[in-house]
Amino acid sequence: xxxxxxxxxxxxxxxxxxxxxxxxxxxxxxxxxxxxxxxxxxxxxxxxxxxxxxxxxxxxxxxxxxxxxxxxxxxxxxxxxxxxxxxxxxxxxxxxxxxxxxxxxxxxxxxxxxxxxxxxxxxxxxxxxxxxxxxxxxxxxxxxxxxxxxxxxxxxxxxxxxxxxxxxxxxxxxxxxxxxxxxxxxxxxxxxxxxxxxxxxxxxxxxxxxxxxxxxxxxxxxxxxxxxxxxxxxxxxxxxxxxxxxxxxxxxxxxxxxxxxxxxxxxxxxxxxxxxxxxxxxxxxxxxxxxxxxxxxxxxxxxxxxxxxxxxxxxxxxxxxxxxxxxxxxxxxxxxxxxxxxxxxxxxxxxxxxxxxxxxxxxxxxxxxxxxxxxxxxxxxxxxxxxxxxxxxxxxxxxxxxxxxxxxxxxxxxxxxxxxxxxxxxxxxxxxxxxxxxx
Length: 439
Fold this sequence. Notes:
This protein is mostly beta strands. The chain is about 5% helix and about 40% strand.
């Protein structure tokens, strides 16, 4: 503003005011009005989400902290049951025009939940406050990094709970039969132990507990065999209730046989698919060592997640092991030949990267060898020379039934054929043999 003072001819002073307004809210050069304005503050709000994999998310389960550029805590909030994470709005007045930086992170508890993976993502937030005229505006940008961030604008915190693997349900079976590949795709043998309440416990206590009255004809458990006889153990590896999501890494069986009584070779062991009947021996690593057969599914079926690829090694079936065994000719008379087996399953825990190995036994099975008894007598004749085949001798059982009739030789020897003493299905020696014979 300029004031010009002049004096006219009469000596009178005069003034002239010239206005020159600038800045502020000037609307024209000679603007003489001061105008004040109230500039409303502007607010911005940070909204995030929380996702939990492995179980339902709980209300107020996780905490999240908002900090300024210097790391000072502004606010800590919790998620709701729907996974919303909402901070209180921040207000900016005209004195806050400029750039403001913040961070949002999930608060990782000092005592972490077991088997929980927490998201360590950090959301870097930039709020730019601008003034245009009498209006404030904000622009918010995100630059998320670390943890489970999927991109710069990621606003979701992702935690994962890994439940412990469930123990697969399985029940292996064991039978002893007189035929190779007997009923490979069937279940004829499954009801042979139905007379028992707990077939595994009862047969392991006494393998003769399984009675033959309801057994298949091919089932020779408890039967008497001879030295040199060949027979077959069937061991059924059970995957009928297995699923791909049970993290099963390997399956296998072990079979303890009495190597001093039996000859068993790797070549004499075959494995069959109970659904297709196909020979799947090549799917197993099989060893016979020190009286123990071990068979485990091959490592080639384990995928990059350390579990069985069920497109290559199928579940939902039995893998039936047909194990040929031959009784040694050197075994003692009157013995039992017992056999037990078990199934083992390797269950992988992807969280702890450990393996559990539940194992279950089968029934115990038995066959037996008879004991032979020779009856040798002599004949003496006084007064003349004994003749060959001169006298006759009869062997009878306790009930008086004739077993054999023989004659003496010229030297007086009276020899009957050897009698075999066997066991009945309960494991007891035959009664009439125990009571004796009559000659």
